[in-house]
Amino acid sequence: TTETTEMKRGIFILFEGADRVGKSTQVQSLFGHLSTTLGLPTKQLRFPDRTTQTGTIINSYLQNSTQLDDRALHLLFSANRWESKDTLLKHLNEGNSLVVDRYSYSGVAYSAAKGIDFDWCFGCEKGLPAPDLIFYLKMDTEDATKRGDYGNERYEKVDFQKKIKEVYESKLVNSSWNVINANRPIEEVSKEINEIVDRSIKNGIQNKPIQC
Ligand code: T5A
Ligand code: NA
Q1: pLDDT tens-digit series, residues 148-184
Q2: ipTM higher than 0.85?
Q3: Residues in contact with ligand 1 (CB, 6 Å cut-off)
Q4: Based on the structure, what is the number of domains in the chain?
Q5: Does 28 reside within a domain?
Q6: Terminus-to-terminus CA distance in the chain, angstroms?
């Protein structure tokens, strides 16, 4: 017999937002929903990928042990994504969905918040595979700073976090993004996200080609 149902590509789902808004927590939860509840082959990825050569330099910068020019750092973060371009496409084309913790928009938001030209920041990202669904986790900076482990890395300062939030909300978030009130119990946030994902799958989000 011939297989009549064509294999669908995976869905690329991205979580964005400032520090400590609960991205990794929701990535984990959505991974469970997709892989266990819906039975879809799913992979979890995060940027920066601290395991690669560029990731090693980035990690040491974030832990305050290396000094780097702001633009050089920006290019390293971008290169860290370009390094994984082929892997991302391979996974999606083989039918694996991806739940991704930060991507291009983090790169732009954090660098633009330092005062680097917005368009220059965005230029390096053009041509990378684009997400199908973006969740922006939104909450007050002050409330996020009260969450666990805040303050150990370089960027975890309230004033800088406010600038990052400002760049996201004035220049990056648009009507195609899903803005989620992140200042609620974990399960409540997950429930809203799962519903949006279920609806998007039902509406055939995978039927269009992967954008780059
Ligand atoms: N960066 C990144 C750039 O400058 N350029 C780039 O191109 C990229 C990709 C590292 C830094 O790099 C910068 C941005 C970052 O500053 P990272 O490794 O993603 O990026 O940072 P992490 O420190 O791992 O993660 P975040 O600080 O962003 O935190 P999350 O993932 O948003 O939050 P999460 O889920 O770890 O939760 C934080 C705490 O809150 C609790 C959790 O249990 C945890 O203790 N929590 C909640 N508490 C109450 N209610 C809820 N709903 C909660 N959800 C989570
Ligand atoms: Na995280």
Answers
A1: 777 778 888 999 999 999 999 999 999 999 999 999 9
A2: yes
A3: 17, 19-25, 47-48, 62, 77, 101-102, 106-107, 110, 147-149, 153, 155, 185-186, 189
A4: 1
A5: yes
A6: 36
